[in-house]
Amino acid sequence: MLAQIFVNGLLLGALYSAIALGFSLVWGVLNIINILHGSLIVLGAYLAFFLNAWFGISPFAAAPVAAMVLFIPAFLLQLGVINRVLAKPVLITLTLTFGLNLMLNNAMLTVFRADYRKVVLDPPLGVLDIAGLAVPVDRLAAGAGAICLVALVWLLTRTTQIGRAIVAVRMDRDAAALMGIPVATVYALTFALAAAVAGAAGALLSAIFPISPVASAGYLGKAFVICVLGGLGSIPGVVAGGFGLGIIESYGALWLGPEHAGTVAFVLLLLLLLFRPNGLFGRKGFE
Amino acid sequence: MSGRPAVVQDAAIALIAVTAVAAVAVLGDNYVVRLATTLFLYASLALSWNLIGGYAGYPSFATAAFFGLGAYANGVLQAAGLPFAVAWIGVAGIAAVCGALLGFCILHLRGHYFAIASLVVGDVLREIVNSWTSLTGGGMGMNLPLIAFSADMQARFFMGGFFGLALAAFLVARLIDRRPLGFTLRCIEQNDTAAAMLGADTRFAKSAAFTIACIFAGAAGAIYASWVSYIDPTDVFDVLYSVKPIIMALLGGIGTVTGPVIGAVVFLGLEELFWRNFLETHEGVLGLLVVLLVLFLPDGIHRLLTIGRHRTWRAAAS
Fold first, then answer.
1. A interface test, pick of B106, B248, B290, B293 with most A CB neighbours within 10 Å
2. Does any domain span residue A40?
3. Is residue A277 part of a domain?
4. What pTM was computed for the model?
5. ipTM score here?
6. How much is the pLDDT for A258?
7. What is the total count of domains within chain A?
8. Which residue segment(s) compose the domain that A48 sits in?
């Protein structure tokens, strides 16, 4: 039983890493909290839903499409709107992304309605039995997709010129600017990359969870917790935080009842903020 | 500022405001009274948020938490048999204690971390209220006893209640604004660490501002609960109660005494306009308003009004 919960937690944790990845990237590099993040995930999920309903494309194949669809608008949004306030106090940047989120979420509510939709996989993928542990194949596939996504972004930041520029800007914006890196463009690319990852994560989630614009706040909350849990500013931190939260939530649901799984995350967040505001593995210096 | 003593000014402001509200109570129809009631509720929240969010620059999203706490504390106290007036005062006390405790826990955080911590408090409280069914009725909500007046009288009574709260918040803000506490808070807004190093008791100043803000938010929630006489967790812990005061303060001008009041008036006007004309999309329109405000008028209307007349402290420093 406990091993089964652990496996569930791992599968959930892989998805959580993908949920928080873009959020962490934006927070670490741009130093803003992107309230839009949850809505971008939901948007990705809807894209996958309609691709599935209209063309019969599997949500797993829809993930790259969703990423590409979200990339360009996010790039333009960052370049045209959010870049203008990046140097302002926290209150201003937070309020701006909150306002943008109100617009996007309201638009989704108007277009898609609040009722929950579900991608029905046809044929159903079934459940694997590995050494007595039940592993639902759809969750396994979504988790594997999420891990691939995280690995891809990690490789991108490690090996490509754009990725190195993003890391450089995260470490020291002024020094990066002096080295000839176009900081404004890097910001826009980072935000676009984060939105693309959020879209792809949403598409993967659509294979498992019901989709509704109302769910966006929940995803945003999870991203917060994972970032604070794993510490800001590194992809390994996101993975640690994602798996950590997935496992903690699974055991929390077992001991306290599934309806309190969300509360566990929030109480954990509050405790972490009180005692370890830099995350379990975070370094000092981020404010 | 003119040379007249501040107390005389305060008395004059209070007298004019009381006269205006009395006129609305006698002459206004129920729509106007309802509008005025909402205005005073908004002004109380915006003025109180401004103390910690505006003066001290700590982006607090805890308003909804204390609004909901006040509403439910009022409900529980009245369910225990206390009359509403005693319950309201009790709520103010509870909010003060909880605010001071929470402030002690989270005011050492800065920037995004403080914002998130204050935001999460509301979610945790909502979950507690949701699951503590025996005390709060959980997701079913809670009924509060009606106050035995005619419907017209009741509407005017609550307008008076919120007006008293808004006036108190305004006078407290004015008082803090010209006291050393206000100066310390502005120093914290400029540079927390430097203010502390120069000997300002930043910890006390932040805690005081946060606690006062929590008292007003809690009291507003208590009066609101009696006014609508039915509360449920999703209504009173709605994150919009945290965000609207911020928008109002930004709209009017943060870190000023009159800014939040101006902001509340303008915001209410806009909200009425949107509710009427964009019933389905009013949240999106509200979002658009926020974006335009942040991009093009980050210092608020107050700044527009005072340009050229006198440079404010904030403007002189930046």
1. B290
2. yes
3. no
4. 0.85
5. 0.82
6. 72
7. 1
8. 21-217
